[in-house]
Design brief:
With 292 residues, this protein is an all-alpha fold. It contains 14 helices and no strands. It has a domain of 185 residues: Orthogonal Bundle (ABC transporter involved in vitamin B12 uptake, BtuC).
């Protein structure tokens, strides 16, 4: 009896090609996006990731208008738009007394409005919801290839800048005193973030992509203080949530992207309650240490 139920639950993953492509795509995305998300959280830039996820919309929309549903055109447009927002926000923050996050907030809101305007005035009949929330079950083979290339490039970038990135995340003043690579490391890291947001946009939409990037890393930090362990846990959390979200979406006939993010939200709640490091239950029942 139970074997039949379990087989019926797992069977869609092996019976339908669109389920296979969706699962492979989200697994690939889980290898790169959460890694960038861990450092966004460590650098207290989680909301900047959300801002950039909106900033790529006009570029992707322009690519769609020029070449239709071309992965290459929409990817190039999204990367150019996101990179431009990073550059302009950094430039304006240096030329004024505003902080970089303030400038980023302005440019991302303008970009979001511009993207919505482009889609609305195009007359092409493209559904705005497909841009914002994606459709993981309609992923093409070209998108799977792009996600693989993105994962390789992201991991290479992170490997090259890992040491200065860690120092810059913990003590940027120290890095500035011993090296001038700080701004370049920051820009390379933010470029990797943009690439993964574009990749996430291709798979689950602009609004859902940032969830795949941010939530796993934040959840993993409730279980460990070691950076390497946090990165590994974030990848595993994202992969398991992708698997569970796709199965939940198929059996309940609900959208795939939001299903994945809701499961990630559930993982965050469990981590918040039961995590070994700063989890609520752990803090309540752990022995108190008093200092004289």
């Amino acid at each position: 009896m139970w074997n039949i139920i379990i087989d019926n639950i797992w069977d869609p993953l092996f019976s339908y090609d669109f389920m296979k492509r969706a699962l492979v795509s989200l697994f690939i995305l889980s290898l790169s996006a959460p890694v960038a998300g861990v450092f966004l959280s460590l650098r207290k830039l989680s909301l900047s990731g959300d801002a950039l996820s909106h900033a790529i919309l006009p570029g992707a929309a322009t690519g769609y208008l020029i070449k239709g549903l071309s992965v290459t055109a929409m990817t190039i447009g999204g990367i150019l738009a996101g990179t431009m927002v990073i550059f302009m926000s950094a430039l304006f923050s240096r030329l004024s007394r505003n902080t970089e996050d303030s400038s980023l907030a302005v440019f991302y809101l303008v970009s979001l409005a511009l993207g919505v305007l482009i889609i609305s005035l195009s007359g092409s009949g493209v559904d705005l919801l497909s841009f914002l929330f994606g459709s993981v079950f309609t992923i093409s083979g070209d998108t799977v290839i792009f996600l693989g290339i993105n994962a390789v490039i992201t991991l290479l970038i992170m490997a090259v800048i890992l040491r200065p990135l860690i120092i810059d995340s913990v003590d940027p003043l120290y890095l500035a005193s011993v090296s001038r690579c700080g701004p370049w490391v920051h820009f390379a890291f933010m470029f990797a973030v943009v690439m993964n947001l574009v990749a996430g946009f291709e798979a689950i939409g602009t609004l859902m992509a940032v969830g795949m990037m941010i939530i796993p890393g934040i959840s993993a930090r409730f279980w460990s203080f070691r950076l390497g362990t946090i990165i590994i846990l974030s990848v595993l959390i994202a992969a398991l949530a992708s698997l569970g979200g796709l199965l939940l979406s198929f059996h309940l006939n609900i959208p795939g992207g939001p299903s994945v993010i809701l499961i990630l939200g559930g993982v965050y709640l469990l981590s918040f309650l039961f995590g070994f490091r700063n989890g609520l239950i752990f803090k309540l029942f752990s022995p108190k240490h008093y200092e004289s």
